[in-house]
Design a protein that fits this description.
The chain has one domain (22-87). Helices cover 31% and strands 40% of the residues. The protein has helices at 2-19, 23-28, 47-50, and strands at residues 34-42, 53-59, 62-64, 67-69, 72-77, 80-87.
Length: 89
């Protein structure tokens, strides 16, 4: 029973942390313009090219910054790229 309660408490804590408002995600979603985050890729060197923030838009994905980027709507909030699956109306 104790293990179950600890597991339930841990799940509650993790869900609470994920659902907490994150100002970086709000900025990365361009204040709700995009939704359904599919990937986050660290790429600090892109700050020199894209600045602190860049709403790059749709890209089909491929090799980027030594990784494989997924298709979607790309937003750079230094030092990470956020790839979103949907553009909201």
């Amino acid at each position: 029973m104790r293990t179950f309660l600890l597991s339930a408490a841990l799940v509650f804590l993790l869900v609470s942390l994920v659902n907490a408002e994150d100002p970086t995600l709000e900025k990365a979603s361009v204040s709700g313009k995009y939704s359904k985050l599919v990937q986050m890729m660290p790429c600090a060197k892109d700050k020199a090219t894209y600045g602190e923030f860049n709403d790059y838009g749709q890209w089909s994905g491929g090799p980027w910054c030594g990784q494989t980027g997924k298709a979607g709507y790309w937003v750079y909030v230094a030092p990470n790229w956020y790839v979103w699956g949907e553009k909201n109306k």
